[in-house]
Structure formats: structure tokens, C-alpha cells
Amino acid sequence: xxxxxTSFDGQKAGSIELSDDVFGLEPRKDLIFxxxxxxxxxxxxxxxAVKNRAEIARTGKxxxxxxxxxxARHGSGRAPQFRGGGRAFGPQVRSHDHDLPKKVxxxxxxxxxxxxxxxxxxxxxxxxxxKEPKTKILAGGFAKSGLSSALIIDGxxxxxxxxxxxxxxxxxxxxxxxxxxxxxxIRREKLVLTRAAVDALEARLK
Length: 206
Known about the structure:
By secondary structure, this protein is of the alpha/beta class. Helices cover 34% and strands 14% of the residues. It has a six-stranded mixed sheet with strand order 2-1-3-6-4-5.
């Protein structure tokens, strides 16, 4: 698959051939969905919790006599039906993680990249670098090239001036190639890869 290479302000800078083994698969929504679910589950802290009746600080003395009151029989004010009582079947601290094999995760990344390529959502830049960290310059370049929602993937580490300039622009994310992930690819309209990022992804996923 051949694609044009541009600069961040939309100027043409040649072309590049993308590997069909990484960018040319027929996208499978089920794999992408499983990967996103796995990613979001790992983000959950799982620290939400309530007190059950065993943890409530209240006397266990019988509230009133067993018979003769005309009301239901109760033995403890810590029961869930009373104000101040314990919560029945409430959430407890737990992990939301679940297993997903490494090969499935790798395949899901290929399918996410292929889905972007199929939709015309991949942009390749020669590099992602600025002479000075000016958000105004970068925003002007994005306006010329029509970028409003994008995930930008650079090489081993994003160039410092570019990363500083981009961090105040809404809906623009900048990550090193090691940080590329299915969720961030799918939630942004465009996926921007530098030449270095393309080379690293193909070496990693082929």
C-alpha cells in the first residue's frame, strides 16, 4: 500500500510503501472490541466498596421483643432494611483485569491499524519536530492540513519541542511508538505516523 508522506502543515515530502501484513488486513471488529475492553478493564481501580452488615458499628442487641408488637420480627439493627444498616450485595474491592493472550493483543493492533488505513485515516509525516515549542505554530499547521482529532506516533521518544507545543491542543495526543494502543487509535479520527514510527511498527508486528 503506497501513501504520500507530508509535513505537519500539509506539504508533500515523498511517498512510502506500507506493509500489507500490518496495514492491509481485513479489519475484524470482534478483535478490536476485545482489545478495547481489556484495556479499559485494566484502567479500572476497583477500589469502590460499601459496608455490609458485618462491618456496621451498631449494637447487635435485639431491637424489640419477638412477639406482641404487631410488626415483623427483627433481631439486629444492622440489617440492610434499616437506616444505617449494612448494604446488601454492594460492591467490594476487586480487580477488573481479565486475561487476553499476547498474540491476540498483537493481532488486534494490526487490525486497528488496518481499519484506519482502510478508512483513509492514516497520515504519514517525514518527522514530528519543531524549532521552538510554540502551540500557535503547530495549531496553524494542523489547520492547513485539516487535522482536528489525531493520535500522533513518533519514534522511540517524541521530539521535546513538538510534544510541548501539542499538549495544549484539544483532541491531539502524542505518544512514542512503544505507547501505541488500540483504544487511542480508534478514538481519534486520524492516526499520524512518522517514518520512524512506520519502520518501528513494521519491524515489531511483521
